[in-house]
């Protein structure tokens, strides 16, 4: 079963939902705004992908962080930041068969999920 993590109203999330639906793939949705994010999950993502890949540095949430937080970011700080500011996580984040896919890429989804 595919599990997709993100925020319901995000345009990129909507594209991913549409792609999954059009390809008749079953999935469950984890909404950060309603369900939050636990430390173990955040740590697993950071350990597997690196905080530099999981955190969206182009988003407003990153830009709003103070300079000290940004300059001292490491795996541990990233996990804490992800838990308290779930909007900072790149979206969507999709988990299928213990593989993690970050961002929406129809080409990658087609290659890996179909």
From TrEMBL:
NCBIfam families: arsC_related (TIGR01617), PRK10853.1 (NF008107). InterPro entries: Arsenate_reductase-like, Thioredoxin-like_sf, Tscrpt_reg_Spx/MgsR. This is Spx/MgsR family transcriptional regulator. Pfam families: ArsC (PF03960). SUPFAM superfamilies: Thioredoxin-like. Belongs to the ArsC family.
């Amino acid at each position: 079963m595919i599990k997709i993590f993100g925020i319901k109203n995000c345009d990129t999330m909507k594209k991913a939902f549409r792609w999954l639906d059009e390809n008749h793939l079953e999935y469950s949705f984890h909404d950060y705004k309603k369900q939050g994010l636990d430390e173990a999950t955040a740590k697993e993502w950071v350990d597997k992908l690196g905080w530099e890949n999981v955190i969206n540095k182009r988003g407003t949430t990153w830009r709003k962080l103070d300079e000290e937080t940004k300059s001292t970011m490491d795996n541990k700080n990233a996990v804490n930041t992800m838990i308290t500011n779930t909007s900072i996580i790149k979206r969507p984040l999709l988990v299928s068969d213990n593989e993690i896919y970050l961002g929406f890429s129809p080409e990658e989804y087609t290659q890996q999920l179909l």
